[in-house]
Amino acid sequence: MSQQKPPKNGFKNAAILTGIAFEMGIIIYLSVQGGKWLDAQYQNEKNIFTVIATLLGVAISIWVVLQQLKRIKY
User: Fold this and answer.
1) Are residues 34 and 56 in contact, defined by beta-carbon separation less than 8 angstroms?
2) Which Pfam family is one of this chain's hits (predicted)?
């Protein structure tokens, strides 16, 4: 029987994936805070800027994740 070799870049890939999770969280958090700030500045009671900024932050974070996943070597 042949033995399976551990992946060469296992620890590097794990570190990259952990970093991606933190980046997603930071991007979404900052976009929510920016939306709240805009709502406070324009005295908007319906929080429309928060909703728009949050959706934009999620879209940007997904795009960043996809770009970084392309760089991971298996």
Assistant:
1) no
2) ATPase_gene1
3 falls within a domain = no
Whether 13 and 72 have beta carbons less than 8 Å apart is answered as yes
Using 50, 70 and 90 to split pLDDT, how confident is the model at 16? confident
Q: How many domains does the chain divide into?
A: 1
pLDDT of residue 68: 87
CB pairs under 8 A, 24+ apart, for 30-33? Answer: 30/57, 31/56, 31/57, 31/58, 31/60, 32/57
3-class DSSP state of 37: helix
Give the domain extent around 14.
Answer: 10-73
What does the alpha-carbon distance between residue 23 and residue 26 come to, in Å, rounded to a whole number? 5
